[in-house]
Amino acid sequence: xxxxxxxxxxxxDEAVTPGVPSPLLTQFLAEQxxxxxxxxxxxxxxxxxxxxxxxQPLVLRVALAEPSxxxxxxxxxxxxVGMGFSGPVSILVSWMGLNGEEMRRLVFGLxxxxxxxxxxxxxxxxxxxxxQRMSSHRQGWVILACCAFSLAIFAxxxxxxxx
Length: 163
Known about the structure:
Structural class: mainly alpha
Oligomer: single chain
Helix content: 55-70%
Distance between the termini: 72 Å
């Protein structure tokens, strides 16, 4: 079994070598309208082993029907942390009876970001499958943006409180 398995693994590694045109890949893309996983360019009729738009090497592989969702969960948590902070703090501070200038700073510093984060979370939930199909590089940028926005909300709160 071990020698047979090793031979199968060696054969499959040859079949998915990036940059080398695979007959299975070109056959699959001959009549399929499949977007490039990196840039979204249509790969229909591709003859080579790289995307003509972004030059990323392509391979044909078997993948999980439902990919790992840790990046999606990380983006959701990053947004939830910001919302969990700005929402309740906005309500508490608004009960303090602020004057016009203080209320304006509260709206722009906490309420408006809360609304924006709510919309971002709604879009992330609504487009969960599209997020899962993004390249891991793009998913990382989305997670970073979510974290940065939540940190910006916390920083804006500290600036409001400091004044």
